[in-house]
Write a structure and sequence with these properties.
The complex is a heterodimer.
Chain A: E1 8-18, E2 24-35, E3 40-44, H1 51-58, E4 66-71, E5 74-75, H2 81-91, E6 92-95, H3 107-117, H4 126-135, H5 151-163, E7 169-173, H6 181-196, E8 200-204, H7 208-211, E9 216-221, E10 224-230
Parallel strand pairs in A: 3-8, 3-9, 6-7, 7-8
Antiparallel strand pairs in A: 1-2, 1-4, 4-5, 9-10
Chain B: H1 3-20, H2 23-61, E1 65-70, H3 79-82, E2 88-89, H4 94-103, E3 107-122, E4 125-134, H5 138-143, E5 144-149, H6 154-159, E6 163-167, H7 168-174, E7 184-187, E8 190-200, H8 204-212, E9 221-225, H9 226-233, E10 236-241, E11 244-249, E12 254-259, H10 262-279, E13 285-288, H11 290-333, H12 335-343, H13 348-384, H14 393-419, H15 423-428
Parallel strand pairs in B: 2-11, 4-9, 6-8
Antiparallel strand pairs in B: 1-12, 1-13, 3-4, 3-7, 3-12, 5-8, 6-9, 7-8, 10-11
Classes of the chains: A alpha/beta, B alpha+beta.
Amino acid sequence: MQPADPIIRLEGLEKRYDLGGEAEVRALRGVNLVVNPGSYVAIMGPSGSGKSTMLNLIGCLDRPTAGRYFLGGTDVSRMPDDELSEARGRRIGFIFQSYNLIAQLTVIENIQVPLLYQGKDLRAYHDHCVKLAEAVGLGDRMHHRPNQLSGGQQQRVAIARSLVNDPLLILADEPTGNLDSRTGLEVLELIGTLNAQGKTIVLVTHDERVGSRAHRVLHMRDGLIEREVVNPQNPASAAVPV
Amino acid sequence: MNPLSFQFVSTVRLGVKSLMLHKLRSVLTMLGIIFGVCSVIAMLAIGEGASYEAQQAIKKLGSQNIIIRSLKPPDDARQSGLSRGFALEYGLTYDDASRIQSTIPGVVRVLPVRIIRENVRFFRNSVPCQVIGTLPSYTEIVGLDILRGRFLTQTDEINHDNVCVLTAGLAQRLFPYQDPLAQAIKISSFYYRVVGLVREKNMPEQRTQAGKMEGEPLDNNVYIALGAARSRFGDVLIRRTAGSIEVEKVELHQLTVQMQDVAAVETADPQIKTLLSLFHRKPDYETIVPLQLLRQAEQTKRIFNIVLGSIAAISLLVGGIGIMNIMLATVTERTREIGVRRALGAKRRHITMQFLVETVVLSVGGGLIGVMVGLIVPVAVSHLTTMRTIVTLWSVLLAFSISGAIGIIFGLYPARAAAQLDPIEALRHE
């Protein structure tokens, strides 16, 4: 990745789902987007607008039918499965709505999971993982299992896990959807702090209050970015025309 | 530890953790393999022990020998008890012995044996025993350890001397306080001088007695010269049992034909049968060829092993199917976890590996427990019954490696099914 490269560059990204026979769903109809390093972008829209598809493509969980997707300067739109896994593991940190921690593992082990698939020696990264757990305020619960934690605490573990590989991009899918408003706020503040430290964040939500914290809010409808609202608080991450 | 092996160890630890999440389920799944492995080892141990015993017993008879025994003809069996003053005449004769010796090629020697059941007395001690009239070559052909004194000699035979040799056990019972050598014991109405003490290495009669007559010692034998036996007892044997008298005329009870080598046994066997059939109107004898018995025993053992192996293989197969079934259910149950792992960078092979390792941990764990139980069961069987068991190393290795192989074979499909899941679908799975 060159210093000038944007984190995400989408060029005419399309995704069609073949439902068999003549039926076909065009979930994305040629989306163009550039996300620069350090941005905080929210994707909003009603269900069926294509925001989940967008999230899957940005998260390298799926490949576009047409168009190109550059993640940190690398074209990932035609990558084979294994390389895509590699890209997810190294470059993207996921935060899910339902936390998605692994039930049989402790907090510290959950944080370590992405390292496992990078073939890294877990012993060498132990201190790093401990620091992350402390950073999200779970230094005293390192050996608890997910079912011994509250929802907010579980989401903090997920945030620590998303950071362990020092990714280019943190992708959050309704991170506050399962939380009450107070803990949701805490989680959002934590995400805001990460952004303030320079992390690039892409967040999918349909909650206006969550979206309003981002610097750019992309409103999607019918597989296209319908409009974009730029929060003047941080002009550095403003849209760059493609 | 290098990173690769560390990663492997972590994967195994992870697998164990996942299995520990459902302890009961894991144990139940393992049971199939435990029983399978245990039954392979235990059954083979019992089979091996049984065939070893049979083979040992047959080997003792001597693979160079052909044994011919007198047999009470089945259709006359009842007459002996009913008729009075009529002696049932059957069995081998002295003529048979000399005919075999002189006409069958390859015969080294023929050992005739005559067995008379009589009480042996020394003062007040009276012990029921077998009086065996035989020749000096008995020591070599049947096998005797001479403990003290000597066995019968050619001179005893020629002179029909009243000398006898006792088995050690009998001597112990007859002479609890005296030195038996040179004492005179009374059999029927004659006295015999004890010239030696022996111990039988093996004898077919003893083997058949072993199971039947409890309480009666096996080694109650008195050996006297064949000539003496004939002249003192005659050929007619009278046995009084409760309420009836059995009168039989039997010249010889057994002939042991020693051949010059194993190959001669094969050709001589039918020749002897033909020869005997010329002089016996009824089938009042049976021939035993230890060599053939040995071969039959080996053949039986092979079949036995195949049958046992198939049963064990089926039980292991069933165990394997059980594992596969559970693993498929586990994959469905943990679909979401698979999706999460895929999102966090796991490649397909990582997922395959994870589930394969879990299956192998189950089957190898079951295999290890099965081996332990399988080693205990034969010991318990030997303790509780008189059955001999032999655990062979190859049966343990076989059972254990099959359990490992089953883990891989039956784990592969569920593991691949897990790896083929679409990460998006898997993440959406409730």
